[in-house]
């Protein structure tokens, strides 16, 4: 029992160390599960499965009868000679069985405690690594969100620049319109002034010529005629 527990603990330590080394490529499902209790044995060292193998055919006493018959056959045929080494081995076996029964549970608990410590240390390292990866993933998501924000900000800047260009274009178009309007207004005003001056000059010329063409006799006749018209108009009223 003690030897099985020691071998099982050593194998589990090896598997835990190997799994800790390959944690970067393995998954949680690949992690071996440590047995809580070793397999059941009979007579201190014979596995219980060997006895159960005989039960369907020989019953419960079959394995013991087979063991007794095999031992008797080996002893009677001197296949296994009971010399002084046999008694030495028998004494060692008794001492081992006693030590396994006496110290085995405590040593098994100590070994299990060491294995649990190794497993807890490995599991804590795995959890810390998962936590670091989760933090890195969140940081990466935040950076991606910020990158998307930069794209939106870039679109807003492009739209702002387009609006500024449109405002500058409209301002310059208005400036051109106002300058052209000023020049056109100047031309219109100039033509109007030329027309008024021409009309005034023509009216003055006509009046002066008409006044020059009237003689004093014509002026007296016209004045008398006007007075007579006014007198006739007054008589009618």
TrEMBL record:
The domain of life for this entry's organism is Eukaryota
Keyword check for Methyltransferase: no
Name the UniProt key words of this record, in alphabetical order: CF(0), Hydrogen ion transport, Ion transport, Membrane, Mitochondrion, Mitochondrion inner membrane, Transport
Q: Name one Pfam family in it.
A: Mt_ATP-synt_B
Where is it mostly found? mitochondrion
- InterPro entries (UniProt xref): ATP_synth_Bsub_B/MI25, ATP_synth_F0_suB
The record's function comment reads:
Subunit b, of the mitochondrial membrane ATP synthase complex (F(1)F(0) ATP synthase or Complex V) that produces ATP from ADP in the presence of a proton gradient across the membrane which is generated by electron transport complexes of the respiratory chain. ATP synthase complex consist of a soluble F(1) head domain - the catalytic core - and a membrane F(1) domain - the membrane proton channel. These two domains are linked by a central stalk rotating inside the F(1) region and a stationary peripheral stalk.
> What does the UniProt entry say about where the protein is found?
Mitochondrion; Mitochondrion inner membrane
Molecular function terms, GO-annotated? proton-transporting ATP synthase activity, rotational mechanism
An example GO CC term for this entry is:
proton-transporting ATP synthase complex
Q: What is this protein called?
A: ATP synthase subunit b
């Amino acid at each position: 029992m003690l030897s099985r527990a020691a071998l099982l603990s050593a194998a589990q330590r090896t598997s835990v160390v190997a799994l800790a080394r390959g944690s970067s490529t393995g998954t949680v499902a690949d992690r071996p599960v440590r047995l809580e209790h070793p397999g059941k044995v009979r007579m201190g060292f014979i596995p219980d499965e060997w006895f159960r193998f005989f039960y369907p055919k020989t019953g419960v006493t079959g394995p013991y009868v087979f063991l007794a018959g095999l031992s008797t056959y080996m002893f009677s045929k001197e296949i296994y000679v009971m010399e002084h080494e046999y008694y030495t081995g028998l004494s060692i076996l008794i001492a081992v069985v006693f030590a396994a029964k006496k110290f085995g549970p405590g040593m098994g608990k100590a070994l299990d405690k060491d294995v649990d410590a190794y497993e807890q240390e490995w599991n804590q390292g795995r959890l810390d690594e998962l936590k670091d990866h989760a933090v890195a993933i969140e940081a990466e998501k935040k950076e991606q969100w910020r990158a998307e924000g930069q794209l939106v900000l870039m679109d807003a800047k492009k739209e702002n620049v387009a609006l500024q260009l449109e405002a500058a274009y409209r301002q310059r178009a208005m400036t051109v319109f106002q300058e052209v309007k000023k020049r056109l207004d100047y031309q219109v005003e100039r033509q109007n002034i030329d027309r008024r001056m021409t009309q005034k000059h023509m009216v003055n010329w006509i009046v002066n010529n008409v006044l020059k063409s009237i003689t004093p006799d014509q002026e007296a006749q016209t004045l008398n005629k006007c007075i007579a018209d006014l007198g006739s108009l007054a008589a009618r009223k």
